[in-house]
Queue: 2 jobs
Job 1
Amino acid sequence: MVFIRDKKVKGHSYAYLVRNTWDDKNGRVKQEIVKYLGRSSKVALDDIPKDFQNDPNVVTFIACHSSDTQKMEITMKEEILELLIRNDTNSLINIFERYSQFFGLLRFYERLLAPVMYKVGELWEAGKLDVATEHVCSSAAHTLVRLINERTSRNSVANRKALRILICTPEGEYHSLGCMVIESFLRSKGYSVSNIAPSVPFDSIIAFANKFEPDLIMISITLADNIGATNKLVNRILASRISICAILVGGIGIESLSIKSENDKFKKVKFLKGTKLSGILSSIKEATKDRARASVKIKK
């Protein structure tokens, strides 16, 4: 077995590739330095002898310490774009597994998948990607996230006391990838999630919410054209008998969103403008803090 050992000298970390070997004479394992690697932050895979480059301990160290991580992510984004165009979901899953093993689900979405999907949109708008290819990329991305969701659901532990969150889009909004990403992220954090996107009629959303009894409703809009539908949906929810802590409205379509309502419950609506996936948890906790306090009082 090999691993990389850190040694600090005058405030700087230096790395050594070390191998465990058996000492027959003393009847115990001893450590043998295979190679001095230099500054820990500058260690790259090419510095490692080929026989040890695929060792999990080596890969983990480089991923967590090396400044080459950013270069690795640039390469991975290029690879993901090519795989989306080829609709190669098996290879996409392999990239997800390799990357998330060290950096996690959240960073995979924020640092790799999201930027690539924005790139796909930019290429399409610039006429460098035809409509058919853009649709293939979108379909492959949906399949990838669906497979990730299935794995997340299998590995998650059911918690009856978990917050129940309903994710939806207004009628006419057919973009659902963002909803799927949020679903898998929240499931990985132990939330109970129902994702009924895309494009669900108002009455169906309210009917489902009455059965599911969510603590929170999240509405996603991608196109500004659907602002009017979002306005109607929010007002219909507020006017219904659904008991919720808050409605969170997010997505790139809300930059120009302006909802007007005479309902005194309108204070329950929160807008997640410019909020990244990593900021959603704090928004949910803030929106549901009253529920959490009530729960604590009941226990007492």
Note: The longest helix spans residues 89-125.
Job 2
Amino acid sequence: MIAIDGAMGEGGGAILRTALALSAVSMRPVHIYNIRAKRPNPGLAPQHMHGVKALGSLTGAKIEGLRLRSTELRFEPGAVKGGRYRVDIGTAGSITLILQALMPAAAFADGPVEVEITGGSDVPMSPPVDYLINVTLPTLRKMGYDGEVIRVRRGHYPRGGGIVQAVIRPVRKLSAIRMIELGRVVGIKGISHCVKLPEHIATRMAHAAKLALLRAGYADVDIEIEAYDPAKDPHLGPGAGITLWAEGESGSIIGASALGRPGKPAEEVAREAAKVLLKQLGTGCGMDRYLTDQLIPYMALAEGTSEITSAELTSHALTNIALVERILDVKFEVDGQIGQPGRIRVEGLGFTRPQRL
């Protein structure tokens, strides 16, 4: 059983998600202690518990320590089973973070995995569902990943109630990815949304984002506006946000997002997202800082040499690298410092579903 200190690196929930995801893929049992030790409320929160339960169902795992605020967990997985699964977080806990834990294992199941998750689709401290659909998944498909995610209903903090459905079909193995530069930006797209709020909020966010990008020299910008008739709006509570993504001629996709909150002008939300996008585009790198974190486990599992440049190396990324190296026995090469653009390279395992480490 591999012992993992949950206080390593940034000491947050990403350690738990990555460790369990790789445990499920490799069938290597893990013992995680000091879970979320560096967070204000250490231990398992509801969304973490439901993520563990979902992975447990997917793999028929034996689990010890699965209780609210537990700081220690033992996870002994079996083979990954296809099928239909449902997860109700019960709060506005992040749907996309639970999917981050499920997606690597589901790719190596013995059949298609269909999962429906209820919770928060657009909440702070996690990728919004539009980023997952329009940045993460298209990039993973370049590696041979086979899956779709459908946003059925949005859920914002504090009410939650968002519904997201995912279908992931198994693959024999993943291919290496090489994204060294963005190249010329061929277009910028986005989705500006508001629910249980006047439509002009989504319209103002879209307009302000387009203006900020136009001033920076980007004229080819297409932002979809998503709003609802208040009398027919199916969402549980109000919320707003914008997700932007730029497509480079190299095939790279760079994304950024921002969420609204009470008292925060729509224009400020839009300018925040545009500023982050422009900063990352300015580096010319092949990956944004958020996708870098998410891609590391897949790079290690893929066949061949993967190499990417990241608009910003984060503590999350370096912690993920250290964790993946420990569980999968691979070695990453990292050139760069935290907070700066960097390069990441790894010779992948060429992991295949019948193989067990």
Note: The helical segments are 13-26, 46-59, 95-106, 129-141, 199-215, 266-281, 289-301, 315-328.
